[in-house]
Amino acid sequence: MGMNMVLLKELPPEETKVLTLNLLKTMDPNDIQNEKSRGQIILEATYKPFKEEDMEKESVDGVDEVQKAPDNTPAGGGLLFVVVHEAQDLEGKHHTNPYAKIIFKGEEKKTKV
């Protein structure tokens, strides 16, 4: 149906932001195909960065150490919560299996139909 992008740097940490995004044909802002209305998607996004005091600590020989983050965890990482509420005014007449795909740092998740 369409796509859009939310930049992580545009999400205030620890604050839920409700977004209404126009669905685009491509991510090229100069593409004439993006002028056609394809509908909108309404979602809420919350970014919760990791804080040092939130991480588990181990005591080794009386010295507290922060445990190593799991492999592939970005430096200064965190959790991203996305709730897709609905899509509106979708292009076309028949939408029997609509879903949303969320791609974050190359990892792709698909919502239920």
UniProtKB/TrEMBL annotation:
Cellular component GO terms, alphabetical: endoplasmic reticulum
InterPro entries according to UniProt: C2_domain_sf (IPR035892), Synaptotagmin_plant (IPR045050)
Gene3D superfamilies, per database record: C2 domain
Annotated GO MF terms: lipid binding
PANTHER family: EXTENDED SYNAPTOTAGMIN-RELATED, OS09G0538800 PROTEIN
Protein name from the UniProt record: C2 domain-containing protein
Organism: Aegilops tauschii subsp. strangulata
